Amino acid sequence: MISSIFGRTNPVNFLIVSLFLSFFLIGGYFLYLDIAFSTQTLWLLVESLALVLMILFLVDFINKKNNLTKGNSYTVLFFVLLFCLFPKIFNEIDLLISNVFILMSFRRIISLRSNRDVEIKIFDASLWIFVASFFYSWALFFIVLVFFALFLYKKNDYRNVLIPFVTLFVVLILAFTFYFLTNKINGFYDLLDFSPRFVIEKYEDIRYIVPLIFMCTMGGWAAIVFFLKKQSKAFKTRVPGILVMLLLGVSILVAILSESANTSELVYALFPLAVIIARYVESIRRLWLREVFISTFIIMPFIVLFL
Question: Residue 30 gets which letter from DSSP?
Answer without folding.
Answer: I
